[in-house]
Design a protein that fits this description.
Structural class: alpha/beta
Order of helices and strands: HEHHHEEEHEHEHEHHHHHHHHEHEHH
Organism: Holotrichia oblita (Chafer beetle)
Protein name: Epoxide hydrolase 1-related
Oligomer: single chain
Keywords: Hydrolase
CATH architecture: 3-Layer(aba) Sandwich
Strand content: 5-15%
CATH superfamily: Alpha/Beta hydrolase fold, catalytic domain
Shape: globular
Largest sheet: 9 strands, mixed
Length: 461
């Protein structure tokens, strides 16, 4: 009997060790980089296309604007909001009425169009899709290094949200020996960039498109910035193309791996081990975080499962599109906006600025194709990619009112060379749009630190 007990003990011990190794591999072993090819995303079979870089100016046909005017005038009467309710049930229709009145009587798209066209815009065909981008070279760059910087927006944003930072990054800054050359692109299916004709074009696949864009523009090495979906794309680019990416700046750095999730759960017992007391409420208690997610992330489930269905209504009704988009600008700029009759919008934006983005979606009929990014990005491949490290120098900036938060203690597991983090006690999800100067100043500081990182590596050799 003693011998049998020893055999059982050995078998149990070996089983526990093997299970432990398996769990460790599942949670902590980094998966291999995915092999992503130059897939043809255009309609039909792959064919020869014009791959030149073509100048582009926004010039919306007058019939589109006439149709919009009629739809706005014929909009059905809005359902009145409940008594004592501001934005808690979604956008307040009294606020929407005010914005619609401004849109109908005072918003001048032709004037906004001229303003948007002040910066050089282009299109080029990549993998079967016409990709739209703004390309601004620096002013008076003599004696300074010119650093290419690709900037990518997210949903429901557009290239327009970076217009306030263009002059702040392309003009030389005192004390800096570099200046930026900006490439501000519209994501595939967003605004003036063509949407895929075939399923499968998510954030990972978009990384290939933008690597090809920068290559076509002649940039061998460059910097990246991204927020929202742009953050996911530049993270993928940084992981997959470290030989071309000099560094990454993001306002939405996240480690969504299993190990990070475990750390966050364990941190609920001792939050101070994970996060500074000042920002503890951004994560803990976890029950409150989950409650906020249930309340605010219903749109994500819709767009990740049935984007085409909801897209029909949004493409047909301009006021419906405005309501759907601007509700996000209320809650994602500052959650406190839900308790304000004006949603807090005027604290950071003008109605004209907000309607610029709504118009970009409307005149290009692109809300459906933009929402498909969710359906194509929430899958097994994306989940596996969440565990892949970023080794290029990285800068992560957190704005206090953004919709998510991860402290350095979690970020360092994924971003192996995290050279700059910054907590800014203002601003939310649309940082460059809300606070262009604060945003631009942070980019300058972040890139200077990355440049110093490379200098320190040179001197240490």
């Amino acid at each position: 009997m003693g011998f049998i007990r020893k055999i059982i003990f050995v078998i149990v011990t070996i089983s526990i060790v093997l299970i432990g190794i398996k769990i460790h591999d599942l949670l902590f072993q980094e998966p291999p980089l995915p092999v992503l090819e130059n897939v043809w995303w255009g309609p039909g079979a792959e064919s020869k296309v014009d791959t030149s870089i073509r100048p582009f100016k926004i010039n919306v046909p007058q019939k589109v604007l006439d149709d919009l005017e009629q739809r706005l005038k014929k909009a059905r009467q809005f359902t009145p909001p409940l008594e004592t309710i501001q934005q808690q049930y979604g956008i307040n229709t009294e606020l929407l009425s005010e914005i619609t009145e401004f849109w109908t009587t005072r918003y001048d798209w032709r004037q906004r169009e001229r303003w948007l066209n002040e910066y050089p815009q282009f299109k080029t065909n990549i993998q079967g899709l016409d990709i739209h981008f703004v390309h601004v070279k620096p002013e008076a760059a003599a004696g300074r290094k010119v650093l290419p910087l690709l900037m990518l927006h997210g949903w429901p944003g557009s290239f327009r949200e970076f217009y306030g930072v263009i002059p702040l990054l392309t003009r030389p800054k005192e004390g800096r020996d570099f200046v930026f050359e900006l490439v501000i692109a519209s994501l595939p299916g967003y605004g003036f960039s063509q949407g895929a004709a075939k399923p499968g074009l998510g954030a990972l696949q978009s990384a290939v498109i933008f690597k090809n864009l920068m290559e076509r523009l002649g940039f061998k090495k460059y910097y990246l910035h991204g927020g929202d979906w742009g953050a996911a794309i530049v993270t993928a680019m940084s992981s997959m193309y470290p030989d071309t990416v000099l560094g990454m700046h993001s306002t939405m750095c996240f480690d969504d791996s299993a190990s990070s999730t475990i750390k966050m759960i364990l941190g609920s017992f001792y939050p101070s081990f994970i996060i500074d007391k000042k920002y503890e409420k951004k994560i803990y208690p976890i029950s409150a975080t989950l409650e906020r997610m249930l309340l605010e992330f219903g749109y994500m489930h819709l767009q990740a499962t049935k984007p085409d269905t909801i897209g029909v209504g949004l493409n047909d009704s301009p006021v419906g599109l405005a309501a759907y988009i601007l509700e996000k600008y209320i809650t994602w700029t500052n959650e406190d906006g839900k308790t304000m009759l004006d949603g807090g919008l005027k604290a950071k934006y003008s109605y004209a600025e907000l309607l610029d983005t709504v118009m970009i979606y409307w005149v290009t009929n692109s809300i459906t194709t933009s929402m498909r990014m969710y359906a194509e990005s929430f899958n097994k491949a994306a989940m596996e990619f969440a565990g892949i490290s970023v080794n290029v120098p990285t800068a992560c900036t957190r704005y206090v009112n953004d919709i998510g938060y991860q402290p350095d203690s979690l970020l360092t597991s994924r971003y192996k060379n995290l050279v700059h983090t910054n907590d800014i006690d203002d601003g939310g999800h649309f940082a460059a749009f809300e606070l262009p100067k604060v945003f631009a100043d942070d980019v300058w500081v972040a890139v200077e630190k990355i440049e110093m990182f490379y200098e320190s590596k040179k001197t240490s050799k």
